[in-house]
Amino acid sequence: MTKFIVILLTLVSGLNAQDTVRTTNLKIDHLLIAVDNLDSAKRQYESYGFNVVYGGEEETSLNALIFLKDGTAIELVGKDRFPKLWKIFNSLRFTAIFGIMKDRITAFSKIREGFFNYSLYSDNLENTYKHLNKNKFIVDKPVRFSRHRNDSVKIQWELIGTKPYDLPFIIGDYTPSRLSDSIFVEHKNKAVAIDSIVVETIAIDEYIEIYTLLYQISPDIESKSGQKTAYFKIGNITLKLQEVARINSYFKKSLSTTKSFTIKCEHTGKHGVTNLNPYIQLVQ
Fold first, then answer.
1. Measured on CA atoms in the order 39, 40, 41, 42, is the torsion positive or negative?
2. Nearest by Cα to 250 from 36, 40, 84, 107
3. Contact call for residues 141 and 227 (beta carbons, < 8 A)
């Protein structure tokens, strides 16, 4: 009997440890920018001084990528590259039966140009899913995706879809690496890392709670002129959650929207901020 009690207590202790385990730390993976024409956008961002590579074969790729030395990336999503059938299915809400993430991806083709979303990286998607599900997030279990790199090598990864769509989605490891050549992290403008991201919301208290549960960190909060701003430090990146009176959201029924981000450059002896467009700044 004593031996049975010891075994039972050991099992219960193990279950409690799993229930209270902290999910793996999340970090910023990549930022998403919708563009009306992928080829034109690639040339535009190359004129900004970025090294831009198609996500697959030039003629068929849905996206182009800017890789940074800190491991993050900027994804240009070509709205002109999405099959028309995807758009029709999404308009009819047919894609919803395939899960949050696939429905969300088809919705990318219908939004306006601009910085519309970002993704987080987790090195343990199952733990992250359990944490989010336990805290009443609307999430899908990890779903596998694949594509070919620009060098024709097939890569695979998994995604956790989240809802509402203004929240970041979660990504796991790429197998093999999504970066085909280290030369792609070298940029004429000396860009090396994402420095900060600004998200605006009309529901600041609700989104502070959501982000605190998501990142499992408490923000620094300040209030000016009756409006709150919460600062979340995610690795070396500052995410600024800003209260505003209204937003121009990319997704229907959203209460927040991505506004802008800054990119840190290598030290060149120069100082200052260069505005590349309404939502990207380079910081020297």
1. positive
2. 107
3. no
Cis before residue 83, ω within 30 degrees of 0? no
Q: How many helices (H) and strands (E) are present in the chain, helices listed first?
A: 6, 17
**Domain annotation for the chain: domains and CATH numbers:** 27-184 (3.10.180.10), 189-283 (2.60.40.4320)
Strand partners, 256: 201
pTM of the model: 0.89
Question: What is the Cα–Cα distance from 129 to 122, expressed in whole angstroms?
Answer: 10
CA distance 135 to 162: 13
Pick the residue with more confidence: 217 or 84? 217
Please state, in angstroms and rounded to a whole number, the distance separating the CA atoms of residues 169 and 119. 5
Of residues 109, 181, 191, the one with CA closest to residue 149: 181
What the block records as the tokens of 144 is: 């596998």
Rounded CA-CA distance 128/160 in Å is 9
pLDDT digits (tens, 9 = 90+) for 45-72: 999 999 999 999 999 999 999 999 999 9
- CB 132, CB 140: distance < 8 Å: no
Please determine, for residue 9, whether its predicted confidence score (pLDDT) is greater than 60: no
Q: pLDDT averaged over the chain?
A: 89
Report the pLDDT value the prediction gives residue 46, as an integer from 0 to 100: 98
Tokens 């690795």 -> residue: 235
